[in-house]
Design brief:
It is built from 14 helices and 6 strands. With 346 residues, the protein is α/β, with parallel strands linked by helices. Helix 2 crosses helix 13, helix 4 packs parallel to helix 13 and helix 11 packs parallel to helix 12. The protein starts with 6 loop residues before the first helix and ends in a 7-residue tail after the last helix.
Length: 346
Amino acid sequence: MADIGNAVFTAHLQQLLDNKTKPSGALGRIEALALRIGQVLGTSAPVLVRPQLLVCAADHGLAAHGVSAFPREVTAQMVENFLAGGAAVSVLARQHGLQLTVVDCGVARDFADSSSAPPGAPRLLVRKLAAGTRDACAGPAMTAAECAQALANGRDIVCELPGNALLLGEMGIGNTSAASLLLARLADLPLAECTGAGTGLDAAGVERKRAVLQRALDANPQAAAPLSALAALGGYEVATLVGAVLQAAAERRVIVVDGFITGAAVLVASRIAPAVLQRCVFAHRSGEHGHRLMLAQMQAEPLLDLGLRLGEGSGAALAWPLLQSACALLREMASFAAAGVAQRTR
């Protein structure tokens, strides 16, 4: 399998794309997408098999400060909605043939593990570390040991999942706060530029949220390195996703990144292992205030810009058909020579 950094193989893929029956670059960013997938999978005839949509869920201690427009109970209620098939991501997973796996990383309600659910049905894995993180305004949200266990859980989950594509999703009331904190700390950006309305706060609510998050930053001044910042300011679901991303990248799976919160997990992972970004496809630019800045930090150009801010992996699922089309075009579209079509002369 050719390495993604192999310049000869990359040039071969680009030549194949340039010689398809079309003007050079006429398929726009779909060509760049096809190139990326071919690089990740190490083939000029990529096929995405048994795609896995991984939704990690947890509660956050910061939610007690009113940083979300919704109460904490919604995290557990949405986990049940995912499994019942009524959530947006559940509908999209069914539509596109994505295997939906929900992970209880730290929800403030107990669930029964349903890892043995029938093939194709949504399933729940219980990897609970606690009933939500601690209040980051009073110190680290999780211990170093808890953070390490969450990373290990994410790695182990991916090892058990089949296929060569992993779509990322999340659920957790208060987790846009965790993502904003991680962006501000790791990118050294002003907190106000990283913080938005989340689930729909009004202007006063956003100001209250920013004040709470500033207290969290002030309470954790020592957390500058990626793992230290993750433990102090992140969430159990974000840390589990970091482990999942690191493992998926090591296995050369195509990683489809959803929005702001899954982007925060990839940001942390990329500060640990920069090559992670070579395995990623960024699904969309969300309506969350700091997402543009986060994407810029990773030099990422998302596929879609639809004003989405739902999370759950919904944007990743919506972008999925574009990946399938890019693969089909690289595999099946004829060259000028094969089709007997004259090439451009000037």
